Amino acid sequence: MLKEDAKLVLRFSLTSRQIMTVYLLFSAAISVLPTAIDSLETAFAKEVLMLTDTQYGLLVSIAGAGIIAGASLNSVIVERLSVSLMLGIGSLFVAFGYLIYAFSSSLVAAAGGFFISLLFSICEYRFYDVLSNKYPRRGDGEGSQLFMLWLKPF
């Protein structure tokens, strides 16, 4: 069964190069890079913005609130906007949020940059929605899980 699933993933990857390219670029820009700079965010907040542990905790909580707000907003706009528009706007605003954070000089400015991360949940949800619709259906879903596990580290 696992061998069949691996063949399905490989066949899909080779025949759907456009989807694979978008998946790899999107994963790098929206999943891998933000994860990689988490420790830099902490150092920046503590050393440059001179935030206390409590203030930094508040900042992280604001980012979480932004993601919750984004998920709520997503449930309202998901049927009204095209996938490409949501992916594009979401990706741009995530980058814009990081820029605001990088150039912030206070907790309030940094919080604004973090809150903009609400669009992260919008673009990520829509991307995985598109991917699941493009991936060949199998009754048990094992192939799609293998596909996600195989490519997620990239």
TrEMBL record:
Organism of this sequence: Bacillus safensis
Membrane-crossing residue ranges in chain numbering: 20-37, 57-76, 83-101, 107-128
Name of the protein in question: Major facilitator superfamily (MFS) profile domain-containing protein
Keywords: Membrane, Transmembrane, Transmembrane helix
Taxonomic placement: Bacteria, Bacillati, Bacillota, Bacilli, Bacillales
Keyword check for Metal-binding: no
